[in-house]
Automatic annotation (TrEMBL):
The keyword Lipid metabolism does not apply. It comes from the Bacteria. Keywords: ATP-binding, Cytoplasm, DNA damage, DNA repair, DNA replication, DNA-binding, Nucleotide-binding, SOS response. ATP binds at G34, E35, N36, G37, A38, G39, K40, T41. The keyword Endoplasmic reticulum does not apply. Pfam families: SMC_N. This is DNA replication and repair protein RecF. It is found in: Cytoplasm.
């Protein structure tokens, strides 16, 4: 590990319920406390905009600008990044450009939001993810894809290209255009992209599993066994070219069935992430609420460790309402684990005493109605 990546200053303009605030920081963790609706999650969301994508709320950009503000919003951060000092500014302009996210790195317009990953990685865990194991498989796919994306920025492009090709195939089938040459071409494209997606997901699970294997299993956070199901399950270890042929054949055989269903029934868009509580040998969805939370925290921490190992720098962690479901022992264990990671973590809660075990390892900030009290 070369040096700690941390935010030195964060400035927000017309971001959610903040008109204009500036938060000076140092390399310590940051604990944000305040009443419900004060703006704690909003501040974390602002930090999440220092990574590619739609941030931790997956919000539409138009919803982010402060209600009543004339223009767009801005998030500005001065940080000790992976390549040293860097200034990042992102946000939207008002009017017709309210839906375009702008990004400047050291004052120069960036070509792509992916450039952010040269400077920092941001990972988060929010209460919206609490139902991950019991909710729809689409949420687990998105979760897994986000893990993949954090180490392999090309994964996003693969997934969107696959979606586009699949929509093309669905359209051809809906219009009854069973021209084998045309359909075959689209299906070949889907096969190559779809198999690449499945292999990237599989690789991420392999890396995480190796990490979990190497960890202390007596830790406060249970280890998970992870598996993918629903797409090329038994065949996935075969060479990629064979998998592509197999998937292309599945698609060709399924044309009439898929035309009747109105969608493509087999593919990486149908796979699911299966999570089991290792020690209990039980499906995560059958575990208690607290156990599920602990499993999820364990997964996010393992992922953070993986990112730290692969990039040489610990990611910035955003842990929203993290203390809520954890008992005192687990909270203390969590603080020790994030310390051991060696990065900066932002944590929120309504009750400051939940974080007292952090002592002077953290900077405590009180949030009240869009104002910050450091
Ligand atoms: N675009 C916006 N403009 C102005 N205010 C907004 C905007 N979007 C959200 N808000 C306000 O921000 C507040 C919510 O802030 P936030 O979610 O950060 O609260 P919190 O401190 O995390 O609260 P809780 O403890 O309830 O989770 C709400 O009062 C909401 O109405």
């Amino acid at each position: 590990m070369t040096h700690r990546v941390f935010l030195r200053e964060l400035k927000l303009t017309d971001f959610r319920n903040y008109a204009r605030v500036s938060l000076p920081l140092d390399s310590r963790h940051v604990v944000l406390t305040g009443e419900n609706g004060a703006g704690k999650t909003n501040l974390m969301e602002a930090v999440s905009f220092l990574s590619p994508g739609r941030g931790l709320r997956r919000a539409a950009l138009a919803d982010v600008a402060r209600v009543g503000a004339a223009g767009g919003f801005a998030v500005f951060a001065d940080l000790e990044g992976m390549e040293g000092d860097v200034e990042i500014g992102t946000g939207t302009d008002g009017g017709d450009d309210a839906l375009v996210r702008r990004l400047r790195i050291n004052g120069t317009a960036a070509k792509s939001v992916d450039e952010l990953t040269d400077h920092l990685r941001v990972l988060w865990l929010t209460p919206a993810m609490d139902g991950l194991f019991t909710g729809p498989s689409a949420d687990r796919r998105r979760f897994l894809d986000r893990l993949v994306l954090s180490l392999d920025p090309a994964h996003g492009r693969r997934a969107s290209d696959f979606e586009r090709a699949m929509r093309g195939r669905n359209r051809l089938l809906a219009e009854g255009r069973f021209d084998p040459a045309w359909l075959g071409g689209v299906e070949r494209q889907m096969a190559s992209l779809g198999v690449a997606m499945a292999l990237a997901r599989q690789e991420m699970l392999g890396l995480l599993t190796a990490l979990v294997d190497a960890q202390d299993l007596s830790s406060a956070f249970p280890s998970a066994s992870l598996a993918l199901s629903g797409f090329l399950d038994d065949e996935i270890a075969a060479p990629a070219i064979d998998l592509e042929d197999r998937y292309a054949a599945i698609l060709a055989e399924g044309r009439y069935r898929d035309a009747a269903a109105g969608r493509t029934l087999e593919g990486p868009h149908r796979s699911d992430l299966l999570v089991r509580h290792r020690e209990k040998n039980m499906e995560a969805e059958r575990c208690s609420t607290g156990e599920q939370k602990a499993l999820l925290v364990g997964l996010v921490l393992a992922h953070a460790r993986l990112v730290a190992n692969m990039t040489g720098h610990a990611p910035i962690l955003l842990l929203d309402e993290i203390a809520a479901h954890l008992d005192e022992g687990r909270r203390a264990a969590l603080f020790d684990r994030i310390d051991a990671l060696g990065g900066q973590a932002f944590m929120t809660g309504t009750d400051k005493s939940m974080f007292s075990a952090l002592g002077d390892r953290a900077r405590f900030v009180t949030v009240s109605d869009g104002h910050l009290n450091v």
